[in-house]
Amino acid sequence: MQTVVLALMLLVSVGFMLKQSFLPWKWTLGMALVAALWVGFSWPLAIEQSKTQIADWLANPTLMADTAVLLTIEVALQMAFCVVEATYGGLTDLQKRKRLLLNMLRYFPSLLFFVVLFSLLVTLIFALPGVSFPLIAWSLAGAVLLLVPAFVWLLRWLLPETDLRLELLFLLNALMAALGIVATVNGRTAVEGFDSVSWDALAGLFGMTLAFALVGFALRKIIRRKHEKRI
What we know:
Structural class: mainly alpha
Low-confidence stretches: none
Largest sheet: none
Mean pLDDT: 81
Radius of gyration: 23 Å
Strand content: under 5%
Number of helices: 10
């Protein structure tokens, strides 16, 4: 489970940097400053954590399920941004509603990135015994303030094509969704296996699929004919 959590933390961090590469530099620097202040001022809460408590959290199926729900919500918002950006990002004469939706999704920050920073701060506090807690926190804050814009610039330099970065962000979020499912299961089976097959239910499923497919095909034909008549 720790490996899955570390992979999720890495993907969340890379996804945050990729998302910032679509935004103006003023916003990126502002987000870096907010993240640095969050790290610097959260050390009193970080020192209250313990290794055994964190291990208990990772082994708690209910807590991991709640975390997976939050991850799914954020992944859905980020993937929605990818779709909306690919559809309307290059247009200038958008309707007010569509422009508002695009800006809301575009400027929505990755809230899980702040959780990752807090976890990193706790890890550093455990790894550096005897060092002043504020010194560790503000040193990490300074590193965040410098590294976030640097990594965003590096991503823009390595991947200058906007479409390529957008596709990569979409794939990263899809992978995070899959890892979230793994974290939810947490060593358990989500569905109890069974040997018997309900042939009636299976036949009903195929029947419904075929019926909806025929309805969709008929509607497509009708819409196409109406469109041809207008032309």
